[in-house]
Amino acid sequence: MIPFMVKNDDTKQAVKQKMHIEAFFPIPIGFGQIDEALNKKNLEFIKIKQLKFKKNPGGGGNSATKSTYILDNDELSDIKKVLTDSVNEYFKEIMKPAQDIKLYITNSWINVNKNGESHHIHHHQNSIVSAVLYIDICEEDTITFVNPYTTLFGNLRFGNSSTMWNTPDWIIPIKMNTLLMFPSSLPHQVNVRPNTCTGTRISLSFNTWFKGTIGSGEDSPDQLCL
Fold first, then answer.
1. How many domains does the structure of the chain reveal?
2. Distance between CA atoms of 137 and 179, rounded to whole angstroms?
3. Is residue 153 one of the residues assigned to a domain?
4. Cα atoms found within 13 Å of the Cα of residue 20, Cβ hemisphere only
5. pLDDT tens readout for residues 35-73
6. Confidence of residue 224 (pLDDT cuts 50, 70, 90)
7. Where is 43: in which H helix or E strand?
């Protein structure tokens, strides 16, 4: 609560008032916990398949699988189902769709970051919800979400300290077996991995699209069905 002073019209005495500030338009980030046994299955799959990787084009030095349909492998069918159920739970909790709409996973790939490597700022095009599952990490690993609304009061800069409303980004510590879900339009990046980390940072990312009907009423565009 923030106190401020006003004058009483009758007594002309200062009257203490209080106000509070609410966040009305937050960006929803979903956190899910995936069964540890399922996550170990991802690691086993990577080792057995000896997947081929290529450097990401953003210049951070990290790599991703050449295949962008990793979850289409039969060995990962049970994992894919759990991930699909998770993003649908996230989507329905946020959107409360009136029609029967379901998300399905489109492309999926595995990321690898060694110490000293990063992933440039980006967002995911042609997708509704994007997500990342952390397969193998160290305690210092993080993900950074970039604030798309940095011009809260126009393009003025007041030299102020960061608050939850004006901060340019959020650096979020990540944990093993955690699934992060977020709007695909939200910019994000991976900062340079500390040299104090052991092992290799491994994550599985995927995008989604929808099946079902959108739009309602005569004034809306034609309904889209898949």
1. 1
2. 13
3. yes
4. 4
5. 999 989 998 998 888 899 999 988 899 999 999 999 999
6. low
7. helix 36-49
In-domain check, residue 224: no
Q: Which residues make Cβ contacts (< 8 Å) with residue 49, sequence separation at least 6? A: 73
Q: What does the block give as tokens for 132?
A: 């990342």
Q: What is the pTM of this model?
A: 0.86
Residue with tokens 């952390």: 134
Q: CB burial class (10 A; 0-12, 13-18, 19+) of residue 203?
A: buried
**Got the DSSP string for 99-124?**
S--EEEEEEEEEEEE-TT-BEEEE--
Cβ-based neighbour number of residue 174 at 10 Å: 19
Residue with tokens 């339009």: 185
Please check whether residue 7 lies inside any domain of the structure.
no
Find the domain containing 82 and state its range: 34-216
Amino acid letter, 72: D
Contact 27, 186 (CB under 8 A): yes
Give the CATH number, domain containing residue 44.
2.60.120.620
Going from the C-alpha of 180 to that of each of 110, 116, 202, the distances in angstroms are: 15, 23, 14
